[in-house]
Specification:
The chain has 123 residues and is of the alpha+beta class. Helices cover 15% and strands 35% of the residues. The two termini are 23 Å apart.
């Protein structure tokens, strides 16, 4: 995972020239694609455009940012998950499934439309 980090400790995946906490310049940083679940929410109503229910997780990457991730797998607070970036979103999966997800993205020949993303999530 690529992002930005400040000397004060603030980390983000958003593009920022200056830190919102201390106003110093942000520097490029890299973190592993693995994080710990801080919180989760189960969506009982399927959002428009989705074919199946997805849950939202708030993840924390060690020495990195906190961010939201989509999943169709139930997780609990404290679980370690692996994630991949798909466009501007992140998709979470148990660690043993990440190779399957990555292989599916690498072999995808779609145009990047939402239907291709939903098909990938359904695999």
């Amino acid at each position: 995972m690529k992002g930005l980090k400040c000397k004060c400790g603030f980390a983000t995946t958003a593009i920022r020239l200056r830190c919102p906490r201390c106003e110093k310049h942000m520097r490029v940083a890299y973190w592993p694609n693995q994080g710990r679940v801080l919180a989760f929410i189960k969506l009982d109503i399927i959002p428009d455009g989705q074919e199946f229910p997805m849950d939202l997780l708030m993840l924390e990457v060690k020495d990195g940012p906190k961010f939201i991730c989509w999943t169709d797998t139930p997780f609990s607070k404290g679980d370690v998950v692996t994630f991949v970036q798909l466009g501007s979103s992140y998709i979470c999966s148990p660690a043993q499934d990440v190779e399957d997800i990555t292989r599916g993205i690498d072999s995808s020949e779609g145009d990047g439309s939402d239907s291709d993303k939903r098909e990938l999530r359904a695999q």
